Amino acid sequence: MPVGRGRFAPSPTGDLHLGSLVAALASSLDARHRGDDWLLRLEDIDEARAVPGAADRIFSTLKNLGFIWTEPVLVQSKNLQAYENALDLLQAQERLFVCHCGRSDYQGAYPGTCRTVGRLQPGAPRPKSDVALRVNTHNSGTLRWQDDWQGWQRQDLESEVGDFVVRRKDGFHAYQLAVVVDDAAQGITRVVRGVDLLDNTPRQLFLQRLLGLPEPDYAHLPLVVEPDGTKLSKSRSSAAVAEMVPTTALRLALKLLRQPEPPPYIENAHELHAWAAAHWNPAPLSGAANLHLH
Ligand SMILES: [Zn+2]
Q1: Distance CA 134, CA 28 (A)
Q2: What is the pLDDT of residues 247-267, one digit of tens each?
Q3: How far is the CA of 106 from the centre of ligand 1 (A)?
Q4: How close is the Cα of 114 to the center of ligand 1, in Å?
């Protein structure tokens, strides 16, 4: 049987913080427990938000924390042709259209205003920027899928989200498009990520089906919150994990993930990963909305 693949995909918008360490550790342990490979991807497609040097610092922090990944990191900003090829495929199916609407032109789901008038004919040149490109979700039906940790989910894409942006007005490819192209390119079989992306999944399933790409399994992880349940504070989330003793940071992340406590004699980050992977138990994450700091 081919080996499965998990991944962690940080954005270079700052240093690795506690919330992203927890996400990285969950996906890595989940993959390792299954005997899967674990890969990295740099989600730097939004160049306007990238912080110079952040990517290198994230990778060196992960290395110091004992994370081990296979293959070179996939860098989105170097993969733009693959996203253009995906747009070609959507356009060939007459699913792609030019949209001039602004934020104030509609509320809630996009109502399909430019769907017909903006439709791009197969092979026609696409405007490079200044207009958004959306994918037509007409007749996409109700998408149902079973999230490994959050249970059965459903969304009627057309009425709840509407035709969504696949290339932004500023010319950058949208996250929804890049993530499905990249997951396929990296052969990802299982996506472990924060529950804040749960309602994005139907958009990705829809694109995977249109583009003929394999559908990975999904497991959405509760988010780390303050003891009172509020969003992780700026000071705590920005407290650089890089400055913590690696085993201390890993033990804290394991505690947040409600994992068994590794024995105190383990003083090495690599051994800690191995122990935690062998004892990985995602059951306490099932259906949980939040992971509370204490
Ligand atoms: Zn429009």
Answers
A1: 34
A2: 999 999 999 999 999 999 998
A3: 9
A4: 4
